[in-house]
Design brief:
Elements lengths: L3 H34 L4 H37 L14 H10 L2 E5 L4 H6 L1 H10 L2 E7 L4 H9 L5 H15 L10 E7 L5 E6 L7 E6 L11 E5 L4 H17 L1 E6 L1
Parallel strand pairs: 1-2, 2-3
Antiparallel strand pairs: 1-4, 3-7, 4-5, 5-6
Helix pairs in contact: 1-2, 3-5, 6-7
Length: about 260
Amino acid sequence: MPNPSSRFSTTVRGVIHSLDLYVTLVAAVVFGVLGLAGKASQEEITSGVLAVLALVSFSLLRIRSQSDRINESLTEISARPNADHFFTKVDDGDEIKEMISSSREVWLHGWTLELHLVSYAREIRRAVARGLNIKILVIEPNSTAMTVAASEAENRSAGELSSNLEGNLRRLVAPPSGDVSGRLEIRTLSHVPHYTVIASDPSTDQGKIIMRIATFQADHWQRPTFTVTQQGDGNWYDFFKTQFDKKWESARPYASLP
């Protein structure tokens, strides 16, 4: 959305520019009438003409300056954006906690989501108890896909990845001590996903999806990360949302809470 202060500044500059032109026009007409009517001396008319010319010159300089700035802005817009301005290397832990605690629906999708399921397990269970609906989509433990994932991970075996994932999932769906108002669903895939998804309220106008591209034998903190929103990236947002929906429908139910 346009910045209100920017629109205000643009409006003010336009008003000032219009006033310059009006003042110049009025001054020229006044001095012309006075000259024709003989109401002003030659010196006064000459001074007035010089003043009008000064105003015209000033207005032309202002227009030239604004034109240069517009051309510079258009050049920047048409230039290819720098990838460093689009991608980040890490996802924001505090942002993810806020998404889990304040959203009505959250999606988590990736290979094993090991760091997420360990780091945010408490927030997930608390949020589900309060009413959060969360979908978790991971690779099927002890599957061929997990073997492939292990070959692309750094110094991790398929058995280790599967064991850790099963333990993390068991802790998530352990029966709570109190009532549960929300729902936690876990499904598994028979293929290796190409990216991690962290989404909040994906079916609403406030929907947000954080995407982390999968890498080959690279550190977790080197994964290109970007965010799309329903309001700002409609077409691509719908694309990634539909991709998750299709994967979810094709996946195998694993466990749920309650």
